[in-house]
Amino acid sequence: xxxxxxxxxxxxxxxxxxxxxxxxxxxxxxxxxxxxxxxxxxxxxxxxxxxxxxxxxxxxxxxxxxxxxxxxxxxxxxxxxxxxxxxxxxxxxxxxxxxxxxxxxxxxxxxxxxxxxxxxxxxxxxxxxxxxxxxxxxxxxxxxxxxxxxxxxxxxxxxxxxxxxxxxxxxxxxxxxxxxxxxxxxxxxxxxxxxxxxxxxxxxxxxxxxxxxxxxxxxxxxxxxxxxxxxxxxxxxxxxxxxxxxxxxxxxxxxx
Length: 256
Known about the structure:
By secondary structure, the chain is mainly beta. It has a single domain (about 10-15, about 35-255), classed as outer membrane lipoprotein receptor (LolB), chain A, CATH 2.50.20. It has helices at about 10-15, 40-45, 130-140, 235-245; strands at about 55-70, 70-80, 85-95, 100-105, 110-115, 120-125, 155-160, 165-170, 175-180, 190-195, 205-220, 220-230, 245-255.
């Protein structure tokens, strides 16, 4: 059961500086994964350079646009993912020239969204089990920004065909079924997964969430999607019409 966040939420900086749950000094060696299905081997070899230390956290700087209602608004943001502990995404967007500041959090099982106009007037405040489960799905999908966690022995890989592979695992208290669509090199083209949410505004339920990767870049030995489009109803016409709500470019990634 997700736990409520503390009165003072864990900050992005605090999460970044916290110690990993299981410290490791391992580095990436593709030979260890020779028993995996070929698409999984191609992906990991594309995503992680030989001898790269296997990180448990990533810190991302990004910019892009986010859809609020029927309007797209620019944003700039920063995110930390600390695997199995949580994530914090802090951003600023603008509506009619006025800044909206806030954060989405999933830390130690508690999830929340807090957004304020001018940093003072509440616009969105939500928390509870449904929010935590939805944020868990988001963090699971964002494992492709922290590819080292997909090297863990508890990941089960299944080749669906020559260009698609599914990673099954549990993270942040929720089962994950991540389907990666790859090119011939192993580069990510798309990511899809069942995610808990309420994109139609009613009761929460599992829906298909997905990402289109339009560019990639390499940071500290990790190659990750750096320009993406994301949203609900992935794989259907509704994704383009109404499901897509997030477009971003990764400007920098740091690992530890």
